[in-house]
Amino acid sequence: MGSSHPASPALSMATVFFSVCAFFCVLPELAVAKHAGVTRHYKFNIMSQSVTRLCKTKSIITVNGQFPGPRIVAREGDRLVIKVVNHVQNNVTLHWHGIRQLRSGWADGPSYITQCPIQTGQSYVYNFTITGQRGTLWWHAHISWLRATLYGPIVILPKKHVPYPFPQPFKEVPIIFGEWWKADTETVINQAIQTGSGPNVSDAYTINGLPGPLYNCSAKDTYKLKVKPGKTYLLRLINAALNNELFFSIANHTFTVVEADAVYVKPFSTKVVLITPGQTTNVILRTKPKSPNATFVMAARPYVSGPAAFDNTTTSGLLEYETSVSSNHNKNKNKSKKKLLLLTPVLPKLNDTMFSMNYNKKIRSLANPKFPSANVPKTVDKNFFFTVGLGLSPCSKNQNCPGPNNTRVAAAINNVSFVQPSTALLQAHFFNKTKGVYTTDFPANPLVKFNYTGTPPSNIAVSTGTKVVVLPFNTRVELVLQDTSIIGAESHPLHLHGFNFFVVGFGFGNFDPKNDPKKYNLVDPAERNTIGVPSGGWVALRFLADNPGVWFMHCHLEVHTSWGLKMAWVVMDGKGRHQKLPPPPSDLPKC
Fold first, then answer.
1. Which alpha helices (H) appear in 8-165, and where do they start and end?
2. Is there a contact between 517 and 506 (Cβ–Cβ < 8 Å)?
3. pTM
4. Contact call for residues 280 and 134 (beta carbons, < 8 A)
5. Residues 6+ apart with CB under 8 A from 363
6. What is the pLDDT of residue 30?
């Protein structure tokens, strides 16, 4: 596995204790877990930690003093009981991104959607079972911009004695991409909201928390993956960046993509992976048969499709081949030998939207006898057509916003910019106290039709509200997400909580309801929890509303979520005993 790197020059004893405890408490369980799931306990202490990056030390919010945060390891069918204790001044919630949360919506985590935040000095136990899922997911804070440093991997292994649908890898390595600001990220977004301008862009991207040698004074902060020749490695890729989709490649090596968003896919080869914030991708890396006389750079940089400012930098790490045992014996002699050749990868152009479209076309469910494609709804009960994009919103009189007539940039779905409530939607729904919290009149179609990817309308003002869509249990839903050119066309990675959806179609331009559905893939469509709506295009999704609760759907570009590109689905209880949402746990935080 790659070299580890401390969050700061000296980790606290508490950090070491938590790391050791996590290692010894969790891994032995995996050795004895049977087909019946086991219960795995984790304790997440939300605490401040001083970390130095880019020659600047700052205090960041972490779990157990670790950055990135601790890895959660479980098997399909296991129950996770994660006690989160908040030792910082900020309110906190955690989201287990991609976990279905079947009848456990109280554990989903988005602030003011399924729970009120965990306040300073308080705790909450997230209790849920992993049902019918295996692969790579991740956890992150789900309040304001705290996920900038509060994130970590979730590794769900198959049930005991169930193999992968590909050869067992020699080693498995999580690689999590992040985004780093020298400034405090809460200050960054709060200033942007106060002034009505776009937030300052990040100063670096990171690989497993490390920026790499292309940044100022960061050569020592470089992720190194040490490999043996002639082996296969399963790289578990996670994009935890706040605001940027990323291209990723390793020089002179080819990946085989085998999984996306914890769903096995038909394997395909690629030199470059494209991954949006929120998405995960498992790839097999086959190392060269013999140790080459070279070191290989791995690099990630943004795919940019919109008009806004962005962090135009590249994070890099190193793939290093281990030398033979005999040469390792003479380490001192090795230091004086000539340097290895350093090879760098070629990444697509920053705005290569065609690469994005072609790459996503390759992702298809495995759909073989052992892993049949889950039930893609062949017929539909309810159709929705949602525009996603930007617009303008008026600022208050005491603000001096940069937009025309004292306006600011906002983001919206069907021109509704979501207003965060002051109490959690799920509580309001469960206890039937929705008055003054939310309304159920979210539009199923745009109220004003226009040429969505052509010349924008003259009035680009958005409306505001806390609006939801109500779905009866087991409704078969088709949702078309249409990008707009208002202010600028842009790829929007949309994430749906509580469900996987099937990506049955996508294309450029405006969706054609007569002809485009004829080309839908209902045989082996990609099954995901996060999908990039193509820049200047559309994507069609289908899902079965079989999970009672309130489920957030939002853009995973954090700046757009802050601007209101979000909404919620309320799925009603079914008639059966196992089709109803249980009451909330007694320790559910209060607003």
1. 13-32
2. no
3. 0.93
4. no
5. 257, 260, 265, 503, 526, 528
6. 47
**CB contact set of 534 (below 8 Å; sequence gap of 6+):** 353, 356, 357, 360, 483, 491, 506, 507, 508
DSSP character for 234? E
Residue pair 570/472 in contact (Cβ under 8 Å)? The answer is: no
Distance CA 156, CA 32 (A): 15
What would the mean pLDDT of 285-304 be, rounded to a whole number? 97
Q: How many C-beta atoms lie closer than 10 Å to residue 75's C-beta?
A: 22
> Are 575 and 557 a contacting pair, CB within 8 Å?
no
Output the six-digit token pair for 410. Answer: 């906002």
> Strand runs (DSSP E) across 308-381, as ranges?
315-321, 341-343
Sign of the torsion angle spanned by Cα atoms 85, 136, 286, 245: negative
Residue 124 neighbours by CB under 8 Å, 6+ apart:
83, 84, 115, 118, 587, 588, 589
Encode pLDDT of 190-211 as tens digits.
Answer: 999 999 999 999 999 999 999 9
Give the total residue count for the chain.
591
pLDDT tens across 73-97, in order?
999 999 999 999 999 999 999 999 9
What is the number of other CB atoms lying within 10 angstroms of the CB of residue 289? Answer: 9
Residue 237 parent element (H or E): strand 232-239
45 touches 122 (CB < 8 A): no
- DSSP 3-state assignment of 335? helix
Residue with tokens 């929890």: 529
User: Nearest-CA neighbor of 303 among 269, 345, 275?
Assistant: 275
CA distance 565 to 558: 9
Cα torsion 261, 263, 265, 269: sign = positive
Instruction: Give tens-digit pLDDT for 315-365.
Output: 999 999 998 654 445 555 454 445 889 999 999 999 999 999 999 999 999
* Dihedral angle sign, alpha carbons of residues 7, 223, 207, 79: negative
Number of H helices, E strands in the chain: 7, 33
Neighbouring residues of 26: CB distance < 8 A, sequence distance ≥ 6: 40, 42, 73
**Taken in order 362, 364, 369, 370, is the CA torsion positive or negative?**
positive
Q: Tell me the pLDDT tens digit for each residue of 22-68.
A: 444 444 344 444 447 899 999 999 999 999 999 999 999 999 999 99
What is the per-residue pLDDT for 32?
Answer: 42
Sign of the torsion angle spanned by Cα atoms 190, 195, 199, 200: negative
Pick the closest to residue 243 from 272, 211, 202 (CA basis): 202
* Residue 144: predicted pLDDT: 97
Q: Classify each residue of 504-513 as buried b or exposed e, where b means 16 or more C-beta atoms within 10 Å of its C-beta.
A: bbbeebbbee
- E-strand stretches of 414-515: 416-418, 463-465, 468-471, 475-483, 492-496, 501-508
Q: How many Cβ atoms sit within 10 Å of the Cβ of residue 396?
A: 8
> For all residues of the chain together, what is the average pLDDT?
92
